């Protein structure tokens, strides 16, 4: 379970910024939205608001980037760049490394793991463990040196095997280190997806629908959302070059034939009831998911696999633009799965960025689960939760209309729109 995530000097985040999932002492939705452990009361997730270009997507991308580096850095060559972009609007940061840190709980033990990295190498890396209140270092890395402590014997003699652009944790995992394997598994159960580019996630949904144990769960979810179909049919066919368009350039055809050799084409059909003239059921008809169902249905189908995969594993799901192409009620249905003891018995967590302000009223989110992202006059993003926000020195009360207040600009993190009537007159030459 995630406790905190911090990022600094990355994209629009100049200074170290922390999103915390530690529950505060407020009393809203204690029975549903909080995960109680022996050591912490943690939130089941957070919803992130902000204007366009405020940094919401950059916060999600920072989490995704940390996950990518942890899981993939070992596989890269020594010449590979790491695709890291620091805060470029300040001379003090544009050539400095970016900062990433996650604090999380595994089997009741608190770990704090992080690193500083630029596009070419790891500048520093650290791992701390806290079995009780105080934490102790397991390893510390600074520039060219790595210090391995007694509590991390799996890292001994691996210092010289670690490339400048590879994480030491990933190297220890390759040699079957016990602690490193647990942490790598935690990051593997930390899934980051885009609500805009979601085609690539439907493979997970396919696998769950092919599994008899998870198929019924997904179909039941679709039926409860009243998407209009009764069942789903999936068929796999070997890739056939003859199905490629006849006017496609020959060079591209040859490349696709090479790249897709041995691949399968997966067809998804939704099964609908067909009625007669007396509105009696007369049979069934198949619709092609991609061409005959709405973009919202396609998105819901594509991301439902990752959603239930995380719920089944008790992992962490991070989503940018969750509400894109979805009716507000569908967005609400997804978020309620996580803030529910019934549907989320393994304590999965959901962090997502959205513009859907309906959730501020109907999402049943606590004030410490609602985050805002806003840029200052120097172009740097910062985040704050609604429970941290003070109005005339006082905390926002739980009985306020959060949606109304937010749209009116009371909490900040909204677009500033100037005099549009003047722009309209200038555009029309009046």
Automatic annotation (TrEMBL):
Q: Which Pfam families match?
A: AAA_21 (PF13304)
Q: Which GO terms fall under molecular function for this chain's record?
A: ATP binding; ATP hydrolysis activity
Superkingdom, taxonomy of origin = Bacteria
Cited InterPro entries:
ATPase_AAA_core, P-loop_NTPase
Gene3D superfamilies xref list: P-loop containing nucleotide triphosphate hydrolases (3.40.50.300)
Domain (ATPase AAA-type core): give its ranges: 46-361
Query: What name is this protein filed under?
Result: ATPase AAA-type core domain-containing protein
Q: Which organism is it from?
A: Aquiflexum balticum DSM 16537
Organism taxonomic ancestry: Bacteria, Pseudomonadati, Bacteroidota, Cytophagia, Cytophagales
